[in-house]
């Protein structure tokens, strides 16, 4: 993925719009004009609906629709077909939905995009959420595998199902980058600069460490969006990423 490796810092940062209203979302977008990729997650999509996607496109923004779909194949397919019609750039599904669901979802996303005459989204398989620790995986979720092995299995499942990439913690990025096909895009939340709080994230690295580990894109929210001055926080992050 030569192109991805050569992206500039601002093109590698995806900022989540984890706010409750369209007004709050657009205020943030207009306050941070340097951000090129915005992530619309469950809170905002459920509260505002798809109109916000149109407004982001109107502002020439790229869109990561992070719905983390997880259901039976038929339902996943319907949701992916509908989401792809909006012309979003990235769309997430949980890899743990299984191969049948992932393959059906991928085909449906392509159909939806073709129907709407827009490019298909890059379908990303969420591996293991970045708030889950080894302890939680073993004792709450009762998964009898090491965390890295479990994440690797989910990433391989996403790849074998024809997805275009994965969402993973930066702590597993190095292993996954070495193991997966170079065509797979690695998107990493759970990224925290040394000057920010960890919040509810468990498996974190700093932005520079995450890029060095092989992440193509970094999702960084609260260190920017909850800062007293989001513009200054964004600039500081971009400075942190300069070689
Ligand atoms: O494993 C995952 C998958 C998705 N996310 C999402 O990324 C952002 C992270 O926000 P921060 O404020 O930087 O913690 C958020 O929208 C999550 O839904 C994730 O954190 N981990």
UniProtKB/TrEMBL annotation:
Keywords: Decarboxylase, Lyase, Pyrimidine biosynthesis. Pathway: Pyrimidine metabolism; UMP biosynthesis via de novo pathway; UMP from orotate: step 2/2. It catalyses: orotidine 5'-phosphate + H(+) = UMP + CO2. It holds the Pfam family OMPdecase. One of its GO terms (biological process) is 'de novo' UMP biosynthetic process. Substrate binds at residues 18, 39, 66-75, 130, 192, 201, 221-222. It comes from the Bacteria. Signal peptide: none annotated. Residues 12-237 form the Orotidine 5'-phosphate decarboxylase domain. Its EC number is 4.1.1.23. The active site is at residues 66, 68, 71. GO terms for cellular component: cytosol. GO terms for molecular function: orotidine-5'-phosphate decarboxylase activity. Catalyzes the decarboxylation of orotidine 5'-monophosphate (OMP) to uridine 5'-monophosphate (UMP). Homodimer. Belongs to the OMP decarboxylase family. Type 1 subfamily. HAMAP family: OMPdecase_type1_B. NCBIfam families: PRK00230.1, pyrF. This is Orotidine 5'-phosphate decarboxylase.
């Amino acid at each position: 993925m030569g192109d991805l490796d050569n992206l500039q810092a601002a093109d590698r940062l995806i900022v989540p719009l984890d706010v409750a209203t369209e007004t709050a979302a657009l205020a943030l977008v207009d306050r941070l004009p340097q951000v090129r990729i915005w992530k619309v997650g469950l809170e905002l999509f459920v509260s505002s609906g798809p109109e916000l996607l149109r407004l982001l496109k109107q502002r020439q923004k790229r869109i990561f629709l992070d719905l983390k779909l997880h259901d039976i194949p038929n339902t996943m397919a319907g949701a992916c077909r509908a989401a792809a019609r909006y012309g979003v750039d990235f769309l997430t599904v949980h890899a743990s939905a299984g191969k049948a669901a992932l393959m059906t979802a991928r085909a449906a996303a392509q159909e939806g995009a073709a129907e709407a005459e827009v490019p298909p989204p890059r379908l990303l398989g969420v591996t293991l959420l970045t708030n889950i620790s080894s302890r939680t995986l073993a004792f709450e979720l009762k998964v009898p595998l090491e965390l890295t092995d479990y994440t690797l299995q989910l990433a391989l499942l996403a790849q074998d199902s024809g997805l275009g990439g994965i969402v993973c913690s930066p702590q597993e990025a190095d292993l996954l980058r070495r193991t997966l096909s170079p065509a797979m895009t690695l998107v990493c939340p759970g990224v925290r600069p040394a000057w920010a709080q960890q919040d509810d994230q468990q498996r974190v690295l700093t932005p520079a460490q995450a890029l060095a580990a092989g992440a193509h894109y970094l999702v960084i929210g609260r260190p920017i969006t909850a800062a007293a001055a989001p513009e200054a926080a964004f600039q500081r992050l971009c400075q942190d990423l300069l070689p």
